[in-house]
Amino acid sequence: MKDWGLREVEPGTTILDLLREIGGKLAKEALAAKIDGKVIDLNTPVYNDLELAVLTFDDPEGMQVYRHTASHVLAQAVKNLYGNVRLGIGPAIRDGYYYDFDFDRPISPEELTKIEEQMRLIIKEDLPLERIELDREEAIGLFSEMGEKYKVELVEGLDESSTISCYRQGDFIDLCAGPHLPSTGKLKAIKLLNLAGAYWRGDERRPMLQRIYGTAFPKAKQLEEYLQRLEEAKKRDHRRLGRELDLFSFREEGPGFPFFHPKGIIIRRELENFWREEHRKAGYLEIETPVILNRQLWEQSGHWDHYQENMYFTKIDEQDYAIKPMNCPGAMLIYKSGMYSYRDLPLRLAEMGLVHRHEKSGTLHGLMRVRSFTQDDAHIFMLPEQIEDEVAGVIDLVNHFYDVFGFKYLVELSTRPEKSMGSDEMWEKATAALHNVLIKKGIPYTINEGDGAFYGPKIDFHLQDSLGRTWQCGTIQLDFQMPEKFDLHYIAADGQKHRPAMIHRVVYGAMERFIALLIEHYAGAFPLWLSPVQVSVIPITERQHEYAAGISKRLQKDSIRVELDNRNEKVGYKIREAQVKKVPYMLIVGDREAADGTVSLRQREKGDLGPVLLENFIEKIKNEIQQKTK
RNA sequence: GCUCACGUAGCUCAGGAGGCAGAGCGUAUCCUUGGUAAGGAUAAGGCCACCGGUUCGAAUCCGGUCGUGAGCUCCA
What we know:
- It contains 20 helices and 33 strands.
- By secondary structure, the protein is α+β, with helices and mostly antiparallel strands.
- Strands 16-20-21-28-25-24-22-23 form an 8-stranded mixed sheet.
- A hairpin with a 3-residue loop joins β32 and β33.
- The two termini are about 40 Å apart.
- The model has no long low-confidence stretch (mean pLDDT about 90).
- The protein binds one RNA strand through β12, β13, β25, β28 and α16.
């Protein structure tokens, strides 16, 4: 923030006037101001001494004000075009803004163009935004008269004592805390992006409104760049790359049930191998539990009461069974099959468990959200005093894994949900334990109130997809319930039975989701160790087919995943294809290479690297695979 | 599950006032044997998602079902 020194002005001068007086680009670029940490309108008059910071589009708060005003312009445009429409809410969000409308008749996406044109007219008029403060009764009266029932509801929900503010631009007035741009003319590059449904106040029992999403930038170039980024993100979409790279598919015969193709399975198995290795090192033992288990077990675990709508059922010999939606009850039974001393704890039982959940049809999303998936699960049974160490250990493990892939993640601590089991005391104890570890480790996190599992609070690790949407992957869930329900115990030093504590945890989360995120993260160009095809051998003419086949066999002998492209095509064509399929290494062999036992090496990112001896290449690639570096 | 939109060849998509189904990529065969991101020719490939209605006649119009997309709700 620049320092413009001290200024003295007539009382009542607005901040905008003040900035104009200072001159330069300031007045033009300013969007809002900040006084004592509070963001305010540039139209605010100044009466006392104060320290002022100017917000531009480069400040997140400035950007928010800019887009929030754009949402008001959107609402005004819609009001102008469709007289009979009730307004919902219209905030600024990441990358833009939206506004919710209750139309008499749903509008179609084509109409967005028309609305956008109307918005441009409003911007051109350069209408000043005026802040109006009223009391509760006045506000309710005003919005009732306008037939804005949602606004009336909002006002009624506001604190008795709070001042209610509205913003007016031309003949459009909206309930709003502000702040806003001084006038609509400040808006430059605007664009409406899409149309979707959204429940009023996010409640599925309430009416569904139509939400219009848009964005706005001060410069046309910025808007173009943003749209360009969206296009680029679409190219990284795992559903598209999954098809192009022949990794997996979905069919109408099994909505939400993915089919993994040979190339997709390679990635999956590599991830599993890595997982097994790291878990062995971290002191886990691997187990496997059945997919179908008796109803009585699910009643005992609480799933029958708390998770039924997400479960699939079947009958065997007239008996009710359920397809497991979680692996925990199975792990409980394994624990129960033996006797444990306190010296045996912590006992870490890991399971690549295939679970099925009946997710609502509208929530399915490629591999990110499916109805059958494999969790890289583990249940840690431990002494109460081992809880914090074990939670910390899992956090370290998650950290290590995500580091290998170069993922940045967001951490959330989720607390007790409404639908849950156990005493308040248990919940408090468990939540405090998770909280402590996060504090001790200095991990930044946000609290997600009421979003815990029905049996305990949890720490979640979220990863971002190509469009910046976040997906929960790793999770650590503390559970005092299951050990209770299943009457688990261990023999302590006092020779008596005691109750162990338990952690449910996953690192990848679900293999399917994690693979989806990896695809988007790498844009399909997997690091060598994960690449379904690591090397493509490309003979230039038929004369080298034999030599090329020998190379291919030689690589295969060392478990290198190689494809021999001896199709009747030119080198350029074959190289292009290997490049499009994101194969890390291409070995081009012509007469020269065949004569001196070399290969011409081409790397996916670096291009032609010239000839190398085959054995040297093999040594290099084996080393790189082992290192798991790019 | 809800709102809106969409469903035509393996993929990307044209077409459609109701009257014999189209392109590019990919695939197959042939020609070409070419040195670092697309050589040429020919051919195969479709119950226009499914079920019903309107009509002499439906890929096209109408209704329903299923699936997909964006978002909401819900969650790894």
